[in-house]
Recover the amino acids of this structure.
């Protein structure tokens, strides 16, 4: 099911073009309650992870409006609260939106609500995370590949002497299917090569929980007995690194990450974090928007989604599966800077001038 990077981008571009051909000609506004305009609900999970409000929300809104000028987009953020997201989704169902694009806080807990949307004739597009229940489509990255990239990078950072080295695993929220995939992919690279001395599942992906767990790992293992840290995303990396520094661990062991957050790029330049995984937001938003617009119009999703993914109901649905990219200090310029995600001026604070010069960020 996995698409190669170039093929995935071409497929997404073609998908967007296909939907655009059917775009509504009216340039009507996005005021709520408006007649026959297609209405799409976008449900985001939290504001803890910077990407949702900073990147995904504006990109999804722009992509949807480019494909369908008179589509109305209704946004909501659950603030990491399952009950709030259930209520938000119930409200959209009652209000009769034409499609819902969902990043589930807890995929299992949201399954009854996804079923209710299906029974009401409202297609649900799972975005970034594979929601449970009768979803109609899926747009995301290959989660296991994310974990494999992280595991390979951690082994590389610990050098050829990594065999038998001791690591701490700071996994994501087990209620998030992506976290399960990241962990599976990472373990496929790490098991049998390193000793996993401590492993934690981090509820709600909270940075402060990672900080507390890493402090506990240091206390149990000793400050000098941690050779590497698998952190499933950049927030968990930040919490782990903060605990390592507070406990005077020097030099810091290599630490992985994910999401290419601005703070992570600065930590990579400073030598505090070894790598992050970059999941280009634009192709994912393009894919999610194309699926949501097609679903809202009652059109076939197969023409905008080249892949298939198996759902919790046992069947398969149209999907777009994109390929993630490893970022280290040597590849910041060729990835997030080249793609326009951040400028050099945003990344390179005065304290990082020398490090940025060494990395060719000038």
């Amino acid at each position: 099911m996995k698409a190669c990077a170039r093929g995935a981008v071409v497929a997404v571009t073609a998908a967007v073009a296909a939907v655009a051909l059917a775009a509504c000609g009216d340039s009507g506004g996005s005021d709520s309650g408006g007649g026959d305009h297609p209405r799409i609900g976008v449900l985001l999970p939290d504001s803890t992870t910077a990407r949702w409000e900073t990147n995904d929300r504006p990109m999804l809104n722009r992509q949807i409006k480019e494909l369908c000028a008179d589509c109305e987009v209704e946004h909501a953020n659950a603030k990491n609260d399952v009950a709030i997201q259930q209520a938000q989704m119930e409200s959209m169902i009652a209000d009769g939106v034409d499609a819902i694009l969902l990043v589930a806080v807890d995929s299992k807990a949201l399954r009854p609500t996804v079923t209710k949307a299906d029974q009401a004739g409202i297609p649900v597009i799972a975005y970034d995370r594979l929601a449970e229940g009768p979803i109609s489509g899926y747009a995301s990255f290959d989660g296991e590949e994310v974990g494999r990239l992280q595991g390979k990078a951690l082994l590389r950072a610990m050098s050829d002497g990594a065999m038998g080295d001791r690591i701490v695993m700071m996994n994501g929220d087990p209620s998030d299917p992506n976290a399960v995939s990241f962990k599976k992919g990472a373990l496929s690279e790490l098991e049998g090569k390193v000793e996993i001395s401590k492993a934690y599942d981090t509820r709600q992906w909270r940075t402060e929980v990672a900080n507390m767990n890493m402090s506990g790992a240091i206390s149990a293992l000793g400050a000098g007995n941690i050779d590497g840290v698998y952190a499933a995303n950049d927030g968990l990396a930040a919490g782990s690194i903060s605990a390592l520094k507070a406990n005077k661990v020097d030099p810091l062991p290599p630490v992985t990450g994910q999401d290419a957050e601005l703070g992570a790029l600065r930590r990579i330049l400073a030598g505090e974090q070894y790598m992050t995984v970059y999941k280009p937001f634009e192709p994912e938003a393009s894919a999610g928007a194309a699926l949501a617009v097609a679903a809202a119009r009652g059109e076939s999703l197969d023409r905008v989604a080249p892949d298939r993914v198996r759902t919790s109901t046992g069947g398969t649905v149209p999907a777009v599966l994109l390929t993630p990219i490893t970022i280290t200090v040597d590849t910041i310029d060729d990835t997030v800077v080249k793609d326009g995600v951040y400028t050099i001026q945003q990344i390179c604070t005065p304290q990082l001038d020398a490090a940025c010069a060494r990395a060719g960020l000038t």
Observations:
- The radius of gyration is 21 Å.
- The CA atoms of residues 139 and 300 lie 15 Å apart.
- The first strand starts at residue 39 and ends at 44.
- Residues 5-21 form the longest helix (17 residues).
